[in-house]
Amino acid sequence: MPDFNEVSIVLERAGAPMSIAEIHGALCGILCTGSPDAREEWLKEALTNKETGDVLADECGDVLDAVYTETLNQLDDVSMGFQPLLPDDKDTMKNRIAALSAWTQGFMLGLSIGGLKELKHMPETSHEIISDLLKISRAENYDLEGTEEDEKAYFEIVEYVRVGVQMIRTELTERKLH
Questions:
Q1: Number of domains within the chain
Q2: Residue 142: which domain range?
Q3: How far apart are CA 93 and CA 64, in angstroms?
Q4: What is the pTM of this model?
Q5: Are residues 100 and 133 in contact, defined by beta-carbon separation less than 8 angstroms?
Q6: What are phi and psi of 142, to 5 degrees?
Q7: Per-residue DSSP letters for 44-69?
């Protein structure tokens, strides 16, 4: 997976309307729905300002192609190697929480773009996870200091998101097969 900070810089230079965390969350949401046009729908959302011949937007498109490919590979990996694209542990707790909040907001957007409009038709486990992700999406307002307890709680929440997204994808994929 490309580095979070490097992708952020490329997106910023290209004038992308969303952060990399939100863009990656949206990609994961779209991929979870099994949309046949996932890549095109996602790039349309991620690069709304792209003009033909824009070198910075082309560079951004290349980076986003790498993010798309690696994310799809991770979600398809039977060893459950998926990881949300978030800042590393060297970043401040405040920035990591803001990015996690943006990621989950993007994930909800991606589910909607991918065609999931009503949660009442979701399998029970996925419905619960999505409800939790909605709560996490409001986490940017939490003021944590980065203590050892905060670090542990953050790690556990990211792990819950990581596994939850894979469960949602599995349930939605299985539902489409039946």
A1: 1
A2: 4-177
A3: 26
A4: 0.90
A5: no
A6: -75, 140
A7: HHHTTT--TT-HHHHHHHHHHHHHHH
Percentage helix, strand, coil for the chain under 3-state DSSP, each rounded to 5: 70, 0, 30
Per the structure block, which two tokens stand in for 135? 């709560």
CB 92 within 8 A of CB 100: no
pLDDT along the chain (178 residues), means of 10: 91 87 96 91 79 65 91 91 94 92 96 86 86 88 75 94 95 70
Query: What CATH number does residue 97 fall under?
Result: 1.20.120.740
Q: How many CB atoms lie within 10 A of CB 119?
A: 12
Dihedral of the alpha carbons of 64, 153, 170, 107, in degrees to the nearest 10: -40
